[in-house]
Amino acid sequence: MGGVTDSMNQQRKWLGLLLAVIMLAGLIAGCGGKKNDGGGSGGNAGGGASTSAGSGGSGSAGSGDAGGELEPITFTFYSADPSPNWQNMQDAVGRAITAATGVTLDAEFEVGDAAQKIALIAASGDYPHLISPKGDLGKLVEAGAMLDLTDLIEQHAPNIKKLFGDQLKRLRYSEDDPSIYVIPTYAEVGQTYFDAGGGFQLQHRVVKELGYPRIRTVKDFENAIREYLRKHPTDENGNPNIGLSLNADDWRMYISVTNPAFYTTGGPDDGEYHIDIDTYEVTYHFRRPIEKEYFRWLNHMNAEGLLDNESFVQKYDQYLAKIASGRVLGLIDQRWDFQEGENALKAEGKFEYGYGHYPVTLTEEFKETSFWPVGFSPGWGVGITVDNPDPVRAIKFLDFLASEEGQILDNWGIEGEHYVYENGKRVVPEAVLERKKNDPTGFQRESGIGLYHNLGAHYGDGVLDSTGNYYTTNFPEQIVATYNDVEKETLAAYGATTWKDLFPSEKEFPVKPWGAAWNIQVPADSELNVLQERMKEITWRRIPQAILAPPEDFDRIWDEYQKELLAAGVERMEDEYEKLVRARIRLWNE
Questions:
Q1: Do the domains at 74-192+377-477 and 200-370+486-524 have one common CATH topology?
Q2: Which run of H or of E encompasses 131?
Q3: 482-498, pLDDT tens digit by residue?
Q4: What are phi and psi of 198, to 5 degrees?
Q5: Euclidean distance between the first and the last CA atom of the chain, given in angstroms as a whole number
Q6: Exposure check for the chain: N or C terminus, fewer CB within 10 A?
Q7: For strand 381-384 and strand 130-132, is the pairing parallel, antiparallel, or unpaired?
Q8: What three-state secondary structure class fits 231?
Q9: How far, in Å, CA of 519 to CA of 369, rounded?
Q10: CA 96/CA 320 separation, integer angstroms
Q11: From residue 233, how far is each of 226, 238, 241, 294 by CA, in Å?
Q12: What's the Rg (C-alpha) of the chain?
């Protein structure tokens, strides 16, 4: 198979080179006097043709005729993440981006198994023009699908260069392959966190009725749910209230079921691994003995009737529908995963059915680790494929999104429509703020604010633009302004202004020299891919089995699970991943 792939890649490279020569010859023959790039100037797949780079800034996004008008162009795009509010760029922000760049996207977003979809794309040899593959970039690189963006960035992307600055070297793929294949869009530059969206969630009505009890350990969380259910076993329509519901539909099982095992036991988020901060020793995190006790607690919750008995069979839309019904008292999830259901409640004015975020751990000896700092940790992002008809135009589009104008559009929207300036300060008018608070889904679909976030590189919360305003709306005053009165009442009862006030600060943890290990790209030809898939299959079968078993069977099932991991080669997998961790540290310190 490797020989066939190599041959195909070689043919593709020769074809791309031939195409570049032909197009460059055409440009020289027919466009000699032009200063601006035309709509077809990007036939140079490596970005190395000596065409004009444009004037930089937000204006660098487009390529048009001598009069400066942009020629419309449509790029196909696939994202391994869902985007349920996507409006085909017919929202306010989307129209503004198209007006500024001439670019529209024919976009497809994940609706099922994204990893399988990326594998199919890689195998097909027919690639979307732009792609955001998350953790499966290696499959596309191995297939020869991705362009090296190094020269394109150097020649045509001043905003991207400015944004990443001396961190640009961290965008390199690996020690052996220093190419830049994606612009990081899941990592913020200069990020300061001002709010929390994770932890354990309880409805505001629950903690209010119980007198705002301390919610610090899993036992506190459990007791609050049990006590409220004892008083209110059903809702006003006679439907049973649900204590705790988990979302185990496909990859979301990581978020709601398995990741909390390390958050609650002092381990940072490094995907499926625990990495010793001093020795860099890697352990499949389910092999930490303390995590067994977290899953024992979930087993106990099930035995007590406090866990939704459909947690491991419900689909994502069913999970959201339950939340939207108001019957689910507690969640263990991230806000971005459940907010569509919560937004439905807010749209109905049922703010007391919304959720607060609490730093719950197994016992008080542990610190909740949501804010363990990773520094600037690139990895996942958007790349340009070899099938893109105009890579220069594509990189200029991505460069516009990284510009000050592009980021303000993404975060704030349209001046005069979604924000105004008052004494030099960007302010969201009260009427707009009410829409954002009370109908977040409808507001996003109309405005487009936030829909383009994972398409472009961006500064993080707390970073100021050239006018002295924040790039994002996630700063303390604006965050508090978006809270509804019920949220503010709950926070005040706990002596907090924002949800982050309840969590351990990032200052309480050392910065990880490898960044976020979950976004380390595994080479497509590495045995790790097979081993990781094998461990996932075992874990996703055994963890639900252990949680749903009678308590007297839990230890037996857990021991069988651990033996099965060993037999499947978990130690070899750990050793191979440790090599990648150490390689990243070396790469970033060159």
A1: yes
A2: strand 130-132
A3: 899 999 999 999 999 99
A4: -115, -140
A5: 34
A6: N
A7: antiparallel
A8: helix
A9: 18
A10: 32
A11: 10, 9, 6, 26
A12: 25
In the chain, what's the furthest Cα-to-Cα distance?
82
Structure confidence at residue 7 (pLDDT): 39
Q: For tokens 């198209």, what's the residue? A: 98
Eight-class DSSP state of 286: G
Q: Name the CATH topology of 74-192+377-477.
A: D-Maltodextrin-Binding Protein; domain 2 (3.40.190)
Whether the CB-CB separation of 121 and 128 falls below 8 Å is answered with yes
CB 42 within 8 A of CB 393: yes
Tokens of 562: 């651990």
Q: Which CATH number fits the domain 200-370+486-524, given the four candidates 3.40.50.12780, 3.10.50.30, 3.40.190.10, 3.40.50.620?
A: 3.40.190.10
Q: What is the pLDDT of residue 76?
A: 98
Tokens of 504: 């351990």
- CA 90 and chain centroid, separation: 23
Q: How far is CA 275 from CA 175, 265, 505, 515, in A?
A: 20, 14, 20, 11
Domain boundaries, the chain: 74-192+377-477, 200-370+486-524
At 47-101, the pLDDT tens digits run: 332 222 233 333 344 433 333 468 999 999 999 999 999 999 999 999 999 999 9
Alpha carbon 345 to chain centroid, angstroms: 24
pTM score, whole prediction: 0.74
Handedness of CA 513, 519, 521, 524 (dihedral sign): positive
Calpha distance 82→114 (Å, rounded): 9
18 C-beta neighbours (distance < 10 Å), count: 10
Identity of the amino acid at 140: L
Of residues 297, 196, 312, 322, the one with CA closest to residue 256: 312
DSSP H helices in 157-284: 158-164, 204-209, 218-231, 252-253, 260-263
Is there a contact between 248 and 254 (Cβ–Cβ < 8 Å)?
no
Element (H, E) at 397: helix 391-402
User: What residue has token string 């001598």?
Assistant: 66
Angle between helices 527-548 and 570-588 (to 10 degrees): 120
The whole-angstrom separation of Cα 104 and Cα 74 is 5
